C-alpha cells in the first residue's frame, strides 16, 4: 500500500511539474480580464508590484516565478537598476540636498542586499522560493562571504568624501557583529560612524519599528538624516523618516 502510494505520489509530482512547465510550452496564460500573457509577463508584473509595495508580506516567491526571479537577480538588468538607484542618490546629493557640514549630516545604509549581496546564498537556496531558514542564513552570514552590491561602494565613498556621517542599520543580530565588520571591510566598506545591529531587547520588534526607533535616536542626538537607502520597505518606511529615501530592487524576500 505504502509502495502504491509512493508511485502515485511520484506520478502526481511528475504531472504537477509538467503543469508548471505548461507556462513554458504554451507561453500563454490569461489575466482576470482575459488578457493573454506569457509567464514572463506574469512574473514581471509580480516583481514590479513587489517593488511598488503593492504586494506585501509574501513568505516565498511564487513557485512559477522562482526561475524568473533567479534570472533577474543575476542579470545585467538588476545591475542597471541598482546602478540607477545609486546614481539618483548622488544626483540628489548634488542638487536638492543641503549639507550643513557641521558633523551632523547623516546617511543611513541597510546592509543585506544594499551593501552586501546575499545573492550567493539565495542562489544555493532556491532564490526566495524556499521558506527562510534563519539558521542556515546566519551560518552563511557568519562566514563573511557576502560580495559587495555593485555601485553601492561608489555612494558610500562619495558620502565619506562629502563628510556625511554614515550609519549602518541592520536587522542582523549582535552575535554577527564581528563577521559583519570583517565582511564589510573585506569588500572595501570602511569608515562608517556607527554599525547598529539588533540586540536582545530589539528581537521582538519588527524591522520597521526597530529601524524607525534608531532614526528617532539619531535625530535626538542632533543628526539630520539627509538620506537613507535600503532594499526593503521596512528599512525606509515609518516615522521619523529621512529627508529622502531610496529603494534598491530586491524581489527575493520580504522583511516586514
Ligand atoms: C535549516 O538549516 C540548518 C543548517 O543548515 C539545517 O540543519 C536545518 O535542517 C534546516 N531546517 C529546515 C527546516 O530546513
UniProtKB/TrEMBL annotation:
PROSITE patterns: PROKAR_LIPOPROTEIN (PS51257). InterPro entries: Acid_phosphat_B-like, Acid_phosphatase_pln, APS1/VSP, HAD-like_sf, HAD_sf. The keyword Signal applies. Residues 1-21 form the signal peptide. Pfam families: Acid_phosphat_B (PF03767). Keywords: Glycoprotein, Signal. It comes from the Eukaryota. Belongs to the APS1/VSP family. This is Acid phosphatase 1.
Amino acid at each position: 500500500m505504502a509502495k502504491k502510494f509512493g508511485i502515485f505520489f511520484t506520478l502526481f509530482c511528475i504531472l504537477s511539474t509538467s503543469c508548471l512547465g505548461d507556462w513554458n510550452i504554451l507561453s500563454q496564460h490569461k489575466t482576470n480580464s482575459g488578457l493573454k500573457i506569457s509567464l514572463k509577463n506574469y512574473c514581471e508584473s509580480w516583481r514590479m508590484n513587489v517593488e511598488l509595495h503593492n504586494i506585501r508580506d509574501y513568505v516565498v516567491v511564487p513557485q512559477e516565478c522562482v526561475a524568473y526571479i533567479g534570472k533577474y537577480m543575476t542579470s545585467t538588468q538588476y545591475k542597471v537598476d541598482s546602478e540607477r538607484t545609486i546614481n539618483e542618490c548622488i544626483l540628489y546629493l548634488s542638487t536638492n540636498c543641503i549639507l550643513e557640514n557641521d558633523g551632523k549630516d547623516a546617511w543611513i545604509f541597510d546592509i543585506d542586499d544594499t551593501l552586501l549581496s546575499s545573492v550567493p546564498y539565495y542562489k544555493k537556496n532556491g532564490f526566495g522560493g524556499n521558506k527562510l531558514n534563519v539558521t542556515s542564513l546566519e551560518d552563511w552570514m557568519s562566514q563573511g562571504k557576502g560580495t559587495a552590491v555593485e555601485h553601492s561602494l561608489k555612494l558610500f565613498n562619495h558620502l565619506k568624501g562629502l563628510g556625511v556621517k554614515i550609519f549602518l542599520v541592520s536587522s542582523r543580530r549582535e552575535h554577527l557583529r564581528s563577521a559583519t565588520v570583517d565582511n564589510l571591510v573585506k569588500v572595501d566598506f570602511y569608515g562608517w560612524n556607527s554599525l547598529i545591529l539588533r540586540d536582545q531587547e530589539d528581537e521582538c520588534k519588527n524591522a520597521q519599528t526597530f529601524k524607525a526607533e534608531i532614526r528617532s535616536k539619531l535625530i535626538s542626538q542632533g543628526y539630520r538624516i539627509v538620506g537613507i537607502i535600503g532594499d526593503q520597505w521596512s528599512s525606509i518606511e515609518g516615522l521619523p523618516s529621512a529627508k529622502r529615501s531610496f529603494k534598491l530592487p530586491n524581489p527575493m524576500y520580504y522583511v516586514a
